[in-house]
Amino acid sequence: MKVAALAFALLLMGSGAMAQLQITEPDKSPLDVSYHPHGYPILKIQGKSAPARPSARVLYSRPQKNGRTIFGDVVRYGEVWRMGANESTEVEFYRDVTVAGKTLAKGRYTLYAIPQAGKWVIIFNKGLDNWGAFNYQKELDAARVEVPVARADAPVEFFTIVFDANGNLVVLWDAVKVAIPIKYK
């Protein structure tokens, strides 16, 4: 009898905890991760990855074009942009790097951009775990670099950030391609 009463009490406590659990709806802009070297976690599992750690990884959300005019409209020229959707995009370097000639110490940075039609200013900022660019603080900038805008080979529906074979960070969306040169020390 005591065992049955204890089991019933535990069942009631467990159902109360479930009532407080809030499950979120699937996001329209899914979170994604890119590594350098490309596919690092899979290479590691397969025993094909030479370094013990990747050189870098980027965490970002992937909004869709959905027939919209992106640059100059959804993403305004001349304003700080979070480079994606939802939480601010973050890049982590597992060793010191040089980005377009500027040295950055290994560590995590929030990536922002100030897009223009012909060039972007890319910002590596020490303020972490932000939503959008609402809490952007210029005084936390670790580096700012200018990179030219190129035309993508084909329109890209989902905002995409990948590392190329050389470890450069490439941003693609709509008809725009921006390559951020990175050298690993």
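[next item in queue]
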Amino acid sequence: MRTVTRTWLRCLVGALCLPLCLPFVAARAAPLRALVVDQRGTPIPDAVVYAEPVDGKLPPPKRPQAVIDQIKRRFVPLVSVVRTGTAVTFPNKDNIEHDVYSFSPAKRFELHLYHGVPAKPVMFDKPGLVVMGCNIHDQMIAYLLVVDTPWFAKTDAHGEASIDDVPPHTYKLTVWHYRMLDPDRLPSRNVAAGSGGPARFTLQLKSE
């Protein structure tokens, strides 16, 4: 009889606690979402959206790595975003040599004429925008945004971005795009994880 009573009590306690636990689980799983459009309301692909906790507390870096390819005399992808401290490899998959360089203050470097994969990746150890080109092919250009947070995403063809697996918190959500009229004034707003629909941002873009 006592065993049955204890079992019944455990079930009762579990049933009472379940509604309290579910919101917490949902908050942990909820992403941060954004919708980015231009001044005409057209969705913007390849916009970078990144989230910084309002209290400034960030998890320690995990020695991340990334790849920017060179295919058919183009950088692929055109726009990348990485966390500060990321080592980026630049494979040349063309049958001709490329000379990759950047004069950007956030990272100055040059990979002299080469095929295949360079011996060492390039370490991006400061936040900021890095614009890259090829000394041989002027049409080759790429943009790499280095941010201090591990929580970021790029918008798709519908102008939508989702930053998944963010802990329950309030974040400063910031948006950047390489065609912004004023790249020194990045739009941002505070958004709570799991707060509902996407945060909408309207960017003023230069014509292509």
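[queue empty]
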